[in-house]
Amino acid sequence: MDFEVRVAKSKENADRILKLGKEVEKTIFEGENPSIVLPVRGKRNVVWDKDAGLLSLGDSTSKRYFINVAHAKKFMQTMLVGAFSKQLLDEDIHASLREAFYSLKHTIKGSEENTFDEQKESDDVFVDLEVALAVLRDQLHINADRRGVAAGDVVIKDRGDLINWSKLGSGGWAIPGNVEELEFKDLNADFILVVEKNATFDRLHEDKFWKKHNCVLIGTQGQAARGIRRLIHRLNHEFKLPVYVFTDSDPYGWYIYSVIKMGSMNLAHASEELGTPDAKFLGLTVSDIYKYELRGAAIRAKDVDLRRAQEMLKYPWFKHKEWEAELNLMLKHKIKAEQEALAQRNLKFVSDTYLPEKIEAKNFLP
């Protein structure tokens, strides 16, 4: 995002906060009970939008009132978080969630009541604010913890610095918690390969998989953080790059894929900005365990894995014959496998054989 666009976006978001504050002020002067309308974030208001391929919030809303014993503290907290976010935008600075918590935490004068007692309280209110404003928390200059790594023939501009992802040694580029202001100056890639494990990223990076196959390589270090999901979304939408996701062959890995693809229930309100419906699952599957003779490296599935697989069969976004076949295969054989199991064949098997074969054959799950 170039400077002019960034400044305009920040002003637009600051104006949204100001408008919310003015609406509250108006009700006060009219002698009414000040309130804020918020979409309900609970599971009961999360819907599956089959056409968009995303989880989203339904139409249910609730009101948060100032003159209400059950709402008063949360209402006050919402006003504090809104004012703090506008200050960040006006001053063009960023804050971590932890910094925000301590900046807002104090004892209310004349009482023993704190504005916030735990960070979870302020974290939740920031989510409330992004839902109320239809603006990502990241776009309000609130940063999450950094997690994840990337490599590839990509040059970005980040706060004035040009960074080449292909020239950062063995570590790759550490993905920040907030990727809203990154400018992509140059990108040469045919697809994005997202991998779950650090060890797998390191293997593919050392083998220069991204260079041989002209791709962007992204490691999520487990469940993909918001910054990673937003980065994948931006690369896919801005450059029309296909996204292939490579995880362990277990329900947790498959859930990581589903969150990247269609969003999560907790952040259903942000799925349009964080989800990538075009993403395809590359592996590992239970079928692969047999096809690539990895039975000796497979792990016995635990009861929790089997229960989770049974739950996933009920989700509408897994209602594809390919996914149903894999989930039922796991339930039948009661096995799972990690990405690293491919090393049983040889260390470079994942780079030289497994991934190239599946990509060339377009052997993906939807």
Largest beta-sheet details: 6 strands, mixed
Q: Specify the number of helices.
A: 13
Number of spatially distinct domains: 2
What shape does the CA trace take? globular
Radius of gyration: 23 Å
What's the oligomerization state?
single chain
Q: Can you give keywords for this protein?
A:
three-stranded antiparallel beta sheet; 366 residues; Arc Repressor Mutant, subunit A; six-stranded mixed beta sheet; 17% strand; alpha/beta; globular; 13 helices; 17 strands; Dna Topoisomerase Vi A Subunit, Chain: A, domain 2
Architecture overview:
This protein is α/β, with parallel strands linked by helices and 366 residues long. It has two domains: 3-143, Arc Repressor Mutant, subunit A (Orthogonal Bundle), CATH 1.10.10; 149-361, Dna Topoisomerase Vi A Subunit, Chain: A, domain 2. The protein is built from 13 helices and 17 strands. The protein has helices spanning 3-29, 72-91, 97-104, 119-133, 198-206, 209-212, 226-239, 251-262, 271-274, 286-291, 303-312, 321-333, 349-361, and strands at 35-39, 46-49, 54-57, 61-65, 95-96, 142-143, 149-151, 154-158, 161-164, 173-174, 183-187, 191-195, 215-219, 243-246, 280-283, 299-300, 335-336. A six-stranded mixed sheet has the order 10-7-13-12-14-15, sandwiched between helices. A hairpin with a 2-residue loop joins strand 8 (154-158) and strand 9. The model has no long low-confidence stretch (mean pLDDT 95).
